[in-house]
Design a protein that fits this description.
Strands 1-2 form a two-stranded antiparallel sheet. It has 21 helices and four strands. A hairpin with a 2-residue loop joins β3 (416-417) and β4 (420-421). The relative contact order is 0.08. It is mostly helical. α3 (58-84) runs antiparallel to α4. The longest helix has 36 residues, at 461-496. The protein has helices at residues 2-19, 24-44, 58-84, 90-109, 131-141, 158-171, 198-205, 207-229, 233-244, 248-251, 259-279, 282-298, 306-320, 332-364, 374-378, 393-397, 431-441, 451-458, 461-496, 505-527, 543-564; strands at residues 322-323, 326-327, 416-417, 420-421.
């Protein structure tokens, strides 16, 4: 046993030395991307007619499942061995949580077909006005399609452009096969897709590689952000587990719309800003600016990350006037450098982030920040309408736990029952209820024909497990509310007593992140009162402060318990 433990320690040290090399990412990320291509072409690629089959055979499906199980066992084994050998560090612990979470990304993104509308949002396979059509238009013509303010064509097109170019690249990698130039028969009658060949269809299916990589990168930047906050080891690991094992981070990319890419840019921008706080380098600054700009070109609401990023810059500005806990005049050279860097940031982020929106305003007269209003188009008889007469703003935004939290474990979005609109008790109306449910199960249902309904019919015990998870999520929500009150009161007392506030950065960063995202989310739910607006995908930054508050408070409680023992 000692020999085995010694061998493991030697292996861990070798891996640690490799990971510290500056060139390590240039080896690991190409390897990871090649692995994704390998998984797709080994298990998923099928040179045959257009079908809704995620794998190229039952044997491939079994091997894919075995691959995921073996991967998770190996990562979990490594995690346990680090605990046994007492070689667990903050970075290793959070990184292994990241690797464990990655294993759950594959079934949702690689193990599901691309030409299926289930579990997606506004995608509309082979339909008009959805994200699929936008991507296809760019793929087929190489041009950005014009704006249409009554369907998804009002969206910024950066995500769709990247997807189309990725598919176009993969079209050259797909080997020729019999019938590859034939028109897909299912949609030959649809003139919009009249030239859609089986070769192009296979290229579209390869988008699963992009979606999987997108989800992995979101988790990666969450890992980097948590490490950068420099919390205690246990608080960091608990926080990482809470956020990375929230299922929405596994299936957000499977929505196949622009939400996941916008989320990726937001977390990347926040991490880059935190790196700037340590390095003050132009590389980190420009990275943050570019990520915010690209995020806004993906989805304008990605601008919400500007609030926590601005908090980072505000603290750096404050440092210019503080030295040894006293107010001082700033050092001229350092202050000028900081001002110049902020100017560079503004010169990058504003044209890049708002350029597309301004162009659409000038070319198509589309208002900046425009959102397609379903009630404006379909009226208050719309089947997902949440009537303000029935549900007050207070009950929708403030009350937690809300009654609808206990009506159903899954998100209920349909307000019409037997032709009656908005009968109380038949639709989730509280935004925090919907946030919790959609973060766990998206907008799935327990009825047949839906993913969870079909799975649970085969594995009834899964329903019990999901119920436990649901109760745990409610507990985390309540714990977060208690923790937030605790930290706010503690901070107020600290200010009143005029105690040292030098360690307050994380508190204010997390507070600004939560408040700005929560207000934006609540305002969005109130402005567009339909069931589909109350989705966790519109407020993904909120998971960071929730995880950090719960993780740090849990760490404090566990520390006090261990001290008493």
């Amino acid at each position: 046993m000692k020999k085995f433990l010694s061998g493991f320690c030697s292996l861990d040290e070798a891996i640690e030395r490799f990971m510290k090399k500056k060139w390590a990412p240039f080896v690991l990320w190409p390897f990871a991307i090649l692995m994704l291509y390998g998984v797709f072409f080994l298990f998923c690629f099928q040179p045959k007619m257009y079908e809704k089959i995620p794998f190229n055979g039952e044997a491939s499906k079994a091997l894919f499942n075995a691959f995921i199980i073996i991967y998770e066992i190996l990562v979990l084994f490594y995690f346990v061995m680090l605990l046994i050998t007492r070689k667990m560090t903050l970075r290793k612990g959070v990184f292994l949580v990241f690797l464990l979470s990655v294993g759950f990304v594959f079934p949702f993104n690689m193990g599901r077909v691309y030409n299926d509308d289930s579990f997606t949002h506004d995608y509309h396979v082979f339909g008009e006005g959805g994200h699929w059509a936008i991507i296809y238009d760019i793929y087929a013509t190489g041009k950005i399609p014009p704006v249409n303010m009554s369907n998804q064509y009002y969206q910024p097109k950066f995500y769709h452009f990247l997807m189309a170019m990725f598919m176009k690249f993969n079209s050259f990698l797909v080997p020729a096969f019999p019938g590859s130039n034939d028109i897909v028969p299912n949609i030959a009658s649809n003139t919009h897709f009249a030239s859609f060949t089986l070769q192009a269809y296979v290229a579209f299916e390869s988008a699963r590689i992009f979606l999987t990589l997108e989800a992995i990168l979101i988790l990666f930047f969450i890992y980097k952000t948590i490490v950068e906050l420099n919390l205690s080891k246990r608080a960091s690991i608990i926080s990482a587990f809470l956020i990375m094992f929230t299922p929405v981070f596994w299936f957000l990319s499977a929505y196949k719309n622009n939400d996941a890419l916008a989320t990726l840019f937001m977390f990347a921008a926040l991490y880059a800003a935190l790196r700037y706080r340590k390095t003050h380098s132009y590389y980190s600054l420009v990275s943050a600016a570019v990520c915010i700009g690209f995020g806004m070109e993906t989805k304008l609401s990605a601008a919400m990350v500007a609030f926590p990023v601005a908090t980072v810059f505000a603290f750096e500005l404050l440092k210019q006037f503080r030295e040894n806990k006293k107010w001082v005049a700033p050092k001229k050279k350092e202050f000028i450098k900081f001002v110049m860097q902020m100017c560079v940031f503004a010169v990058i982020v504003f044209p890049l982030g708002l350029g597309g929106a301004i162009l659409m305003k000038m070319k198509y007269n589309m208002p900046i920040g425009y959102v397609w209003d379903l009630i404006e188009q379909y009226g208050t008889d719309y089947f997902m309408y949440i009537s303000p007469k029935t549900y007050s703003a207070f009950s929708r935004l403030i009350v937690f736990p809300s009654p609808d939290l206990f009506w159903d474990m899954f998100n209920v979005r349909y307000a019409k029952v037997n032709g009656i609109l908005n009968p109380y008790g038949y639709i989730d109306f509280n935004c925090w209820t919907a946030f919790l449910k959609t973060g766990l199960w998206s907008e799935a249902y327990l009825s047949a024909g839906y993913a969870f309904g079909d799975i649970i019919s085969k594995f009834p015990l899964l329903f019990v497990f999901m119920g436990v998870v649901y109760l745990f999520a409610i507990f985390v929500g309540v714990f977060f509310v208690i923790g937030s009150i605790y930290y706010i009161v503690k901070r107020i007392i600290s200010i009143i007593k005029k105690e040292d506030q030098s360690n307050s950065f994380v508190f204010y960063l997390i507070a600004v992140t939560f408040v700005s995202s929560a207000i934006s989310y609540m305002a969005f739910c109130l402005r567009y009162p339909v069931g589909c607006t109350m989705n966790a995908r519109y407020a993904m930054l909120l998971y960071l402060p929730i995880a950090i508050v719960v993780g740090t408070l849990a760490d404090k409680i566990l520390l006090r318990v261990s001290v008493k023992k």
